[in-house]
Design goal:
3% strand; three-stranded antiparallel beta sheet
Length: 481
Amino acid sequence: MPADERFAVRRESARASVPRPLAAAPAPAGVPLPPGLALRGRLATGARRPETPRGSGRGGSDSRTPRSGRGGGPRRAFERARRAWDRPLTAYYVILGSSLLITVLGLVMVYSASMIKALDISKPATYFFGKQFLAAVIGGGLMLIAARMPVKLHRGLAYPILMVTVFLMVLVQVPGIGMSVNGNQNWLYLGGPFQLQPSEFGKLALILWGADLLARKQDKRLLTQWKHMLVPLVPVAFMLLGLIMLGGDMGTAIILTAILFGLLWLAGAPTRLFAGVLGFAAVLAFLLIRTSPNRMSRLACMGVSEPDPEGGCWQAAHGIYALASGGWFGSGLGASVEKWGQLPEPHTDFIFAITGEELGLAGTLSVLALFAALGYAGIRVAGRTEDPFVRYAAGGVTTWITAQAVINIGAVLGLLPIAGVPLPLFSYGGSALLPTMFAVGLMIAFAREDPAAKAALAMRKPGVRWKTMRRRVKKRSSGER
């Protein structure tokens, strides 16, 4: 046999000796294949695995399908809001955003509410707005400086600010130096159209000095004794109250008293001690109101809906008129009627009434929501810190801003007596705006000092993020793809 024929016969015999694929050979009847062989057979023959229809799993329902309950949407929204609020930088952004929005909206309303008043005294329509804008610019610089200052430097400024404030408040009572505005001897003349009210800085001075004092006593574990809790905090606060009351400013004295009570409450004053100080302050306030016809008339104007025939309660009644005529969305910016002479002080103590008249209920509720957010963020900063100075100072600033806002808005609504205090960050007045913006910067600095907030702010820097990403990337060899 030739060689090529022998080679062909061997090739055919070799092909016949190779086993065929298992999938191609049919299985004998009644003999099951092993699982591995059956799978290989299906893959080799191209057989597809039958798809299981959705809903045919356990219990006849697909486990991957989201549950469609009635409260699923609101519950998810609530969980998202809660997680967003628990982020480290939430308080920082809420304090910064709400304070800036209140200040900007206040500038707009000061311009709208003060135009007629400026023209009435033969000044340009932007006279009061220009002064408030300048104060806002200076206050913004103070807020930025306070936000960048470390906590130790804030504690170091406590005693200098207190001593300078007391000196200026004493200087106000010197004849020929102090000025009287609307019956209150609480002003210093700075030259030109500028004046200064040192009692507004007394609020900031009491907060910083009182927070530093209570923090040092807490470190030495002295706050368990009532004499260390009261002395010298209460005597110094009463000294500031006496200097304020010499000028006849009852409203600022009320705010200072609220700050004192807030510090004592944060320090953990017992109920008997707290009630005793509160009772003494109430008796003193009653005597001061009872002996002053002007204060008695303000107390009698609570809840009035129309002025007296002799002209009493004129301001309180027209404040209610302004709010009532605003409706849901107001008459529009600049379209107020009460600012044309009917409502006294439309750009200071009763600017909230003009806001209600021009922006309506929507505008007033927006202002209330911004103050509520600012107050709640301040409470969060005070509640989450482990530094006693930060807790007392943040709680004092929050008490100051919220108490003053409540007293001002309550007076406009007729629920409280007219105390003559401005709406923080909103009303006209540079002497009130400057220390308030510094106090807001103080809370921003405290929010930045939180360890989690520090880490989050550090990660937002481009250089730190790039270095962190480089550390996370594993180095590869030159030949690895």
